[in-house]
Design a protein that fits this description.
Elements lengths: L2 H19 L16 E2 L6 E7 L5 E6 L5 E7 L11 E5 L8 E11 L2 E9 L8 E8 L7 E7 L8 E9 L2 E8 L9 E9 L2 E10 L13 E9 L2 E8 L7 E8 L11 E2 L14 E10 L6 E8 L15 E9 L5 E2 L7 E2 L4 E3 L5 E6 L2 E6 L9 E5 L7 E5 L5 E5 L5 E5 L4 H6 L2 E5 L7 E5 L5 E6 L2 E6 L3 H6 L2 E3 L1
Antiparallel strand pairs: 1-22, 2-3, 3-4, 4-5, 6-7, 7-8, 8-9, 10-11, 11-12, 12-13, 14-15, 15-16, 16-17, 18-19, 19-20, 20-21, 23-34, 24-25, 26-27, 28-29, 30-31, 32-33
Length: 481
């Protein structure tokens, strides 16, 4: 079916709506509009978590490189956490079971109280890592009264860490990583129901063991579980391999109505879903969590990584893992699409078509076009940056090819090309971002070099042209997602 045929069909459908239900509705604004943040959120903060509470605040906690304390920040926006003051709510003991390796804190609000899960090592053996819990009383956890609830007991008295809690169908679960002496791995992912925030109910179930090659580089590791729910599905991400540039994310998925304590209810992705990316200079992305955007309409991926690949010595002694965020997208089949760890600075957006909302601007062999179900997400992501030509313009930089920009070639075709530093390139890759010509909630891009010409799609390819009809203006309108 050609673009023009689709338009005819769409017009017939719109007329039917008009006849049956009165005036047609405006083209739907995306359910999950664009959100942008500027990375990095927090330097030297690993195993990061951002918890959105009902009081209007985001709460941030993470592992500090000294491994000696638990910190909290809060702000009314995710970006605000970058400059929020930091409060120490607990410090390791001088001796005993919680005197070493204070790792991976997570904060949750359960039944009217605050709880922080964390892992710690013993003063006599720093690798005797076990899981512990703090309980906080007070509206603001930064000023709450904190008490130690002690160790979270598991049937195996072995290396255990990275506890996270979540509810599905009104049932609260705990998931964590733990070693099993009977298995030649460093850690595996487990799940159990909770009687209360510090007590496991019944026998824990092992969900995944590191077996794939990408899970066993350096160490055989499955750790750092995190849960996000969408469309009646439960998705559990986890981290794999050594904590250097090989660190990456894997994914388990299950139906929300399935028995989550039955390993067969879960499907494991055979490939990692989030890995190092040399083009964007992001290495070892992992130990993630999820939160939601300020408007509650987008899922946000929270994770740590480093800006360089090579590490001197033990990666655990390198302090420069840092907290980053970016939007999590959803494929047409309802599965999460993590994309790539994007470059530092402003996070990218996607551009969906006003008149074909299931199609996105993407590049394919560097030609800009419209296409649906772009599972290679980064091909359809662009950073809106100050225009290369200045004068109040913007430029659209490719997410997976930094330094490449949407630009108009001779003849009006729009491509993604590398900036050659010339004034001619700057002019052809700069646009005035206008309110959408067919819907002010969208955006349209007027050429800087050719006043009055706009980026539009025609037979699925992007061109820069002068517009004259209502259809032209619809073709030149996009929504940021």
């Amino acid at each position: 079916m050609t673009t023009r045929t689709r338009r005819t069909a769409a017009a017939v459908a719109a007329l039917a709506v008009l006849l049956l239900a009165g005036p047609p509705a405006q083209a739907a604004v995306p359910a999950s509009p664009a959100v942008t943040y500027t990375n990095t959120i927090a330097a030297q903060r690993a195993d990061s978590q951002i918890y959105k509470h009902t009081d209007g605040y985001y709460y941030f906690t993470a592992t500090v490189p000294e491994y000696d304390r638990i910190i909290l920040r809060r702000a009314t926006t995710i970006q605000g956490l970058a400059t929020a003051s930091e409060t120490v709510i607990w410090t390791k003991h001088a001796t005993g079971a919680t005197a070493n390796h204070i790792w991976a804190p997570e904060i949750h609000f359960i039944d009217g109280k605050w709880y922080v899960y964390f892992a710690a090592g013993d003063s006599a053996d720093q690798w005797k890592i076990r899981m512990y819990l703090l309980e906080g009383t007070g509206a603001n956890p930064l000023t709450a009264t904190w008490t130690e609830k002690g160790r979270i007991a598991t049937p195996l008295d072995t290396f255990s860490l990275d506890a996270t809690t979540f509810t599905v169908g009104g049932v609260r679960y705990l998931s964590w990583a733990q070693s099993d002496p009977a298995i030649a791995t460093n850690s595996n992912i487990y799940i159990a129901k909770l009687t209360n925030p510090w007590t496991i109910s019944g026998t824990p179930v092992r969900l995944t063991v590191p077996t794939y090659s990408w899970e066993t580089v350096g160490y055989k590791v499955n750790e750092g579980p995190a849960v996000v729910q969408h469309g009646g599905k439960v998705f559990l991400s986890y981290s794999a391999s050594a904590t250097d540039s090989n660190y990456c994310l894997g994914l388990l998925s299950a139906s929300a109505t399935a028995d989550l304590l039955n390993p067969s209810s879960w499907t494991k992705s055979p490939t990692p879903v989030f890995t190092s990316n040399a083009a964007t200079s992001q290495y070892g992305p992992g130990h993630n969590q999820f939160t939601t955007s300020e408007d509650g309409r987008s899922d946000i991926l929270v994770y740590h990584d480093r800006s360089y690949k090579d590490i001197t010595g033990d990666p655990l002694n390198d302090p420069n893992r840092r907290t980053r965020v970016q939007k999590l997208y959803w494929n047409a089949d309802g599965t999460p699409n993590f994309g790539i760890p994007v470059a530092d600075g402003a996070t990218p957006v996607r551009l969906s078509s006003y008149n074909f909302p299931d199609l996105y601007v993407r590049h394919y062999d560097f030609r800009a076009k419209l296409e649906g179900n772009v599972t290679n997400l980064a091909d359809s992501q662009f950073r809106t940056v100050p225009g290369l030509a200045g004068s109040g313009t913007v430029s659209l930089e490719s997410a997976n090819f930094p330094g490449y920009y949407l630009r108009t070639r001779a003849g009006g075709e729009v491509w993604v090309d590398r900036n050659d530093g010339t004034a001619a390139f700057a002019g052809s890759a700069s646009f005035y971002q206008r309110a959408g010509l067919a819907d002010a909630a969208g955006v349209s891009y007027e050429s800087y070099a050719a006043t009055g010409q706009y980026v539009r799609h025609y037979d699925y390819l992007l061109r820069t042209q002068t517009l004259s009809t209502t259809l032209d203006r619809a073709d030149a309108t996009f929504y940021q997602q």
